[in-house]
Amino acid sequence: MSWRHHEHSRRAALATATGLIAGATAPAAFAARAAASSGNAAITAPSATAAQYTNPVIWQDFADIDIIRVGNAYYYSASTMHYSPGAPILRSYDLVNWEFAGHSVPVLDFGSKYDLGGSRAYVKGVWASSLAYRPSNRTFYWLGCIEFSTSYIYTAPSVEGPWKRLTTINNAYYDAGLLIDSDDTMYVSYGNTTISVAQLSADGRDQVRAQQVFTAPSSVGTLEGSRFYKINGSYYIFLTRPANGQYILKSTSGPFGPYTMRQVLLDLRGPVSGGGVPHQGGLVQTPGGAWYYMAFVDAYPGGRIPVLAPVAWTSDGWPVVQLVNGAWGASYPVPAAVPSPSRQVAPLTGVDTFDGTSLKPAWEWNHNPDNTKWSVNNGLTLRTATVTNDLYGARNTLTHRIQGPTSTATIELDHSAMRDGDRAGLALLRDSSAWIGVKRDGGASRVAMVSGLTMDGNWNTTGTGTELASAAVQGGRIWLRATADIRPGAGRPGTFSYSTDGTNFIRLGPTFTMGNDWRFFMGYRYAIFNHATQALGGSVNVTRFELTTP
Q1: Residue 335 phi, psi (nearest 5)
Q2: Which helix (H) or strand (E) holds 313?
Q3: Residue 427: is its pLDDT beyond 80?
Q4: C-alpha–C-alpha distance, residues 527 and 522, integer Å
Q5: How many Cα atoms are found within 13 Å in the side-chain-facing hemisphere of 281?
Q6: What Cα–Cα distance (Å) separates residue 202 from each residue in 180, 185, 214, 291?
Q7: Are 520 and 431 in contact (CB under 8 A)?
Q8: pLDDT band at 34, cuts 50/70/90?
């Protein structure tokens, strides 16, 4: 079965798998039972006077969370599918305020389709993967499985890099969780419904042992998204039931089990109106000993966004999510900050003038770029890299996550070096897309709004777009703007406008209705593009990108 049909069949099966294991209880009931039986589970109501954070802690698309703490900093890794570089890393000192730090996978060198060179890799690439730190050699490790076949490990001395491939392992560590044990041995938990554990060689380059350790009961159905922990001498594999549950396995006999299972949550009301059940994330401990669970909720058209809740532990060693009125709280007291953060984190919104000579880590390309066709030197230059009338097949489209619940992206574009047939602008990019941009034809330029860019379920292009409005423009500089409402639900609007002076903006074209089907997985993004329809040779320069919220 192909990878895509495999994924879809799991989700279809999940829709009918609504039973519970014998003895499992709903989260609220379990919390009450644990508190009553243990007497020291530390399940307390949030303080009304403490400073509060609000969920989601980040309203951007960061799915399949792995979260760790190293010293005084927290690090958060996420999926990126076909976007390059892959596996972004965020950094925080309080679990609430986050900044971009780097990417674990510098280039998606997993085959030519990741280069958009005649074939494409939409919805493939970097899925749920794992980030870990090894104190013995002061090295960060990233481990991920690509397309249900091969697993890769990358390492770096810091999250900023440089990240380099350590090894390729011809085993499919699907939805892997990497554990570096207290004795420095490296283990991997992985699998879908049938969960296995592998032990790696001391240098992390090879597998030396693998064993199946658990099979999910039919009453539970699909379990995946492994996260692997050793806590107080016991081994835990934290597993998601997509997209409505979380379970945990525990072994007191070593990493290869035997394991017993408990339900952490199922069909729990989430904190984002219209969003899904919190699931598939990771556990992390603060320096002061408090525990938290960072999960995500499905929140299309924006994607999958992270939410944070405190966790208590029962006296017999099981985690309990702290609920508010029987649900994942919309707010909780702010975790105690780690001592003396070295600096304040950079905001996820604001202005990028493309200063310096490299892109900041907030940016990711749609597939691998042609590095001979772009540059940063106090401004972003995009030279046409593809001759096509299909934006989905055009190389060097640069993307940025959309800030929710609503936000606006504005670019300042120098289009004076465009050539006839070139198309450059700003898109709302997903499997159904629209854009505003400059079209150069017959020696003249006009600004146009184009909609109707579509893909089918195999991610082949079914529509290259229809121009719905346009206006003539003079000179070589224009400001283009897209506004997106990514609150969860159907019918969310995107709008486009332009300016010739950077101050007065003119709405162009009708409202674009964004799709919210989950099967593309990634949410909508703002995307800057420049491609040719006749011949290569033209270029544009982006001197400013600004992301703002109301």
Answers
A1: -60, 150
A2: strand 304-313
A3: yes
A4: 14
A5: 28
A6: 11, 7, 25, 30
A7: yes
A8: very low
The residue type found at 292 is Y
Express each pLDDT in 146-201 by its tens digit: 999 999 999 999 999 999 999 999 999 999 999 999 999 999 999 999 999 999 99
Q: Are 369 and 109 in contact (CB under 8 A)?
A: no
**Exposed/middle/buried for 286, CB within 10 Å: 0-12, 13-18, 19+?**
middle
Contacts (Cβ under 8 Å, ≥6 apart) of 94: 334, 335, 336, 337, 338, 341
Q: CA-CA distance, 523 to 408, in Å (whole number)? A: 16
Burial class (CB in 10 A: 0-12, 13-18, 19+), 456: exposed
C-alpha distance from residue 108 to each of 5, 324, 434 (Å): 22, 42, 26
Interval 107-114 mean pLDDT: 97
| Rounded mean pLDDT, 332-359 | 90
**Tokens of residue 418, six digits:** 């465009």
Q: How is the chain split among helix, strand and coil, in percent rounded to 5?
A: 5, 45, 45
Taking a C-beta distance cutoff of 8 angstroms, is the pair 513, 491 a contact? yes
Are the C-beta atoms of 121 and 115 separated by less than 8 Å? Answer: no
Q: Using CA atoms in the order 66, 547, 428, 127, what is the torsion angle rounded to 10 degrees?
A: -10
Query: What's the burial of 460, exposed, middle or buried (CB within 10 Å: 0-12/13-18/19+)?
Result: exposed
User: Whole-angstrom Cα distance, residue 290 to residue 96?
Assistant: 14
Averaged over 42-66, what is the pLDDT?
A: 79
List, for residues 57-72, the tens digit of each pLDDT value: 999 999 999 999 999 9
pLDDT in tens, 181-192: 999 999 999 999
Distance CA 359, CA 382 (A): 13
**Residue 114 near residue 147 (C-beta atoms within 8 A):** no
Rounded Cα gap, residues 295 and 245, in angstroms: 11
Half-sphere exposure of 278 (CA within 13 A, CB side): 28
- The amino acid present at 307, given as its one-letter code, is V
* HSE of 210, CA atoms in CB hemisphere, 13 A: 15
pLDDT over 80 (residue 41): no
Label each residue of 91-120 as H, E or C: EECCCCCEEEEEEEECCCCCCHHHHCCCCC
Lowest mean pLDDT among 6-10, 292-296, 375-379, 393-397: 6-10
Rounded CA-CA distance 34/186 in Å is: 32
Q: Which of 472, 470, 453, 436 is nearest to 388 (CA)?
A: 453
| Cα dihedral 89/176/71/138 (nearest 10) | -90
State what percent of residues in the chain have pLDDT above 90: 89
Residue 342 pLDDT: 67
Going by the DSSP 8-state scheme, the letter that residue 336 receives in this structure is: P
What pLDDT, on the 0 to 100 scale, is given for residue 338? 75
DSSP label at residue 402: P
Radius of gyration in angstroms for the set of CA atoms belonging to the chain, rounded to a whole number: 24
The angle at the Cα of 385, spanning 383 to 388, to the nearest 5 degrees, equals 125
What average pLDDT is seen over the chain? 92
